[in-house]
Every structure is written in C-alpha cells, then in structure tokens.
Specification:
about 325 residues, alpha+beta, 7-stranded mixed β-sheet, 7 strands
Length: about 325
C-alpha cells in the first residue's frame, strides 16, 4: 500500500500505520496537526509534498554534498515540510535537536547505508548512524523517539533496549519524490509531523507516536487471541477433510504407523504456511516492485489464495441459494 515505506520490527504495527494514514477529517484532528484555517488535512499534505519535493530535488542536484550541506538541507526540509520549527544544532553524533528531546542524526548521502559505520559522526568511526541514534535514545531518559537520515532515506526510531531486534519505519525519499509517491508521503507526513512527538515540556511518553505504538500492541494481542480460535477451526476443518478423503491415512493413524502428534504438527505447519502466504499476498510482498505486471496479474488470477477465497465465496453463495436454482444442471467446473 505504501511502496516507499519499510516497517521493521514492532515499532508501530502495520495495521496501525494503515489507520494513521486514513485520519478522520474533523476539527479535533485538524487542530492536533495544526492545519491552517480553510485547509483540510489532504490540502496540507499536498502542499507539504510539493514543498518537500522542491527541497529534495534541489539537494539531489548537489554533487557529493558534505555533512554540513546535508544538515542544512535536513533542517530546511523538516521545518518547512513536517513542521519542525524548533530545530537547534547539537553536538555530534546528534546533528539537530527538536524541542530539546527529539534527536536527529544526519550523515551525508555518500554514506549510503544508515546501518554501516559512519565516517562523519565522531571519532568513534565504528558506529553507524542508526546505532548512534539508538544509543542516544537508550541513554537519554527524556529522548524517546528520533530520526536518522542521509538525505536519501529517513528513518523513525524509538528507545529500544534490544539491539539484536531492530525496529524502525524507513521512508525512501528518492522513490517518494522522483516517482511522485503521494500515498507513501501522506503516510509519512501523518506519522512524523512535529506534532506527533508531543509538546515541549510535556513528559516524553505523552505523544501520539507512543499512543499509536501502545494501540498497535493492543490490537496485536486481540488479533493474536482471535487468530488462535481461527487456527483451531482451520485445523478441525482441514483435518476432517483430509481424513474423509483419504481412507489410507485413517488406517495409518489407527494402526499407529502415523502418530497423532506427527499428524497434528503437519496440519499446524500447513495452516501457518497458509497464513504466511495470505499475509504476504495482502501486503503485496511476493513480487519485486519492478516485476513484470503480466506475471503479477497471472499469479493473482490463477494461483493466489485470494482467487481461491473468491471462488469459495461464490460457491458458498451458490449453496445458500441452491433452492432457487434447483433443476438447473451445471456443466464444467469453476475456473480461477
């Protein structure tokens, strides 16, 4: 849905990002984002996109911009595009600080990866930009959320005690502005607008980002509990169907040749593989972004689980209304 955004770990649940990206156009939401009178949220995002694109394309034209030039671009870009009007310079490795508690680590675009060691941050050149931000967030009690960028990608991060399980949301600015990816920009704007980090002087957890994170965790718990019951039902239906269609399988279970534990584990593995495939399909993760459109369409129509679910839905509807069609002879089979 947002081709230029990458969600890693459990920073904010993907389902929650979808909710954030479709805000209610009401007075309360508009005021919380500081929308100017006479404009809607969509109007504000559209204007911010053009302003941000102007800054980015001008920066992109620079030949091998320095660290100082990149910091200058990031400062103007964040201020005029995302409402960061309280940015101040800070000692490295943090280049900028907003509201005295939102660190922004900046490296030049010549350092292509945020997770590789940086030559421009400090004398400790073994640290990457992402690690430098994470280290700062973990060490400073008042700093809970922050940003790191090389001018080409922009990453949102949070205080996270686990350094082995990274969690972040990253935006590919090159793809957003060169390809006019307005959908990804809209989600990014709604996620990292200055107002989402909370007001200066208020407790760090008192911000929309933290509330969204907590809401996503709660949604995940509810979804997990609901999924447990659905998995149990899937095991029952699939298991019954396989046994009904395979007398030899029934005999192997009765004789002990195949243990119930092994049978159950095989069913469970199948169910979770189906869940994995459904999630990958729904998030459009099975094909490369620049893949052949005809191959994508062929899979969608002829091989996907989504197509199978559609056929099952049609069959279910037919069964419910069979009495209306009694006496009609059906020739052939359903085709996907």
């Amino acid at each position: 849905m947002f081709p230029s955004l990458t969600i890693e770990g459990n920073l904010i649940a993907p389902a929650m990002v979808d909710v954030i990206a479709a805000p209610q156009e009401n007075t309360e939401t508009q005021q919380s984002y500081g929308i100017r009178k006479g404009l809607t949220i969509r109007d504000e995002i559209s204007t911010a996109f053009r302003v941000g694109q102007y800054h980015f394309l001008a920066f992109q034209k620079l030949e091998n911009p320095s660290h100082v030039a990149t910091v200058r671009f990031v400062q103007d870009f964040l201020r005029e595009t995302f409402g960061f009007d309280d940015l101040a310079s800070h000692a490295l490795p943090v280049s900028l600080l907003a509201g005295e508690r939102i660190p922004i680590v900046v490296i030049p675009p010549s350092e292509e990866k945020l997770d590789r060691k940086s030559l421009s941050l400090s004398t400790d050149r073994s640290r990457s930009a992402a690690y430098a931000l994470q280290d700062y967030l973990n060490a400073e009690d008042e700093a809970l959320w922050g940003l790191v960028t090389n001018g080409r990608v922009l990453r949102l991060m949070r205080d996270n005690a686990s350094l082995t399980r990274p969690a972040h949301i990253e935006a590919d600015l090159v793809q957003i502005f060169n390809n006019d990816d307005a959908a990804s920009f809209g989600a990014l704007w709604l996620l990292i607008h200055r107002s989402r980090f909370g007001k200066s002087g208020s407790p760090a957890p008192n911000c929309e980002l933290e509330r969204w994170r907590d809401a996503g965790v709660k949604r995940g718990i509810v979804a997990r509990d609901r999924l447990a019951g659905q998995v149990e039902e899937a095991l029952r239906i699939l298991g019954s169907g396989f046994l009904e269609a395979n007398p030899a399988l029934v005999q192997r279970l009765r004789s002990g040749e195949l243990s119930l534990t092994t049978w159950f584990n095989e069913l469970l593995r199948l169910v979770y593989r189906l869940i994995f495939l459904m999630v990958a399909e729904d998030r459009d993760l099975l094909h490369p972004r620049d893949g052949n459109p005809s191959a994508r369409l062929l899979y969608q129509r002829g091989y996907s689980l989504a197509a199978l679910r559609e056929v099952c839905t049609r069959r279910s509807a037919w069964d419910r209304h069979y009495d209306r069609f009694e006496g009609i002879k059906i020739v052939g089979t359903f085709e996907i």
